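ok trying again, last paste got cut off:
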Amino acid sequence: MKCIVWELASNDYKYRYLRYNQKPYGECSCYDEKNKIYKDLLDQITKIDPAFHIDTFFDKNAILSNIVADLDDIFEKSSLSQIRSREYNEYKLIFKSLTPDCFIVGSLSANNKNDERRIFSTCDKCPKFDKKSNVRKCDNLLNLHEIYSLLYRHRNRCAHNTTSYQQNLPTFTMMSNLKYCYENYFIYFAILVLIDTIFINLFKRYQDLIELTV
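nice, full thing came through this time. structure:
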């Protein structure tokens, strides 16, 4: 993420001043910063190509099916999927139930006051969400943003070795909660691959446009 920011800043000096002086980023690991970089990248692309629209750029059904197929190739016959068979089966059920509405949102109003661009969609914007009853009508109990929050918390615990002395490790009550199945390494891997896929393709598009302007 930091490399993407630096590349954008190398070609746009106003952006460099913004991100390295006025509003610098931190580690670029949390969702909020990743989402801001997502918006920055879209801004730079549309600055060069005003006709660019993310909804037509990505085939979101293909992205989901490719990620599932690639991870199946890696894990299907691995010892990890055998040792963690329950978690692996839960991952397949959860990830394969995702739809294109769950990620890559590119809406931006004409006056830029209502910026709805997000890597992961929120449930209240989903067609399967019943606004009257405030109830999700899909099989997943958490959206991708909420699952990434679990991933990020686990990442911080591992990075700082806090699991060795923290007293707030999962209790039996937490583990019996239906939502605990989302704390799953296979799901974490899939979400990281999804984020990488989005950024790699957008950055490639940006590079192609930059080369055309040179």
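cool. The longest helix spans residues 185-213. The longest strand covers residues 103-105.
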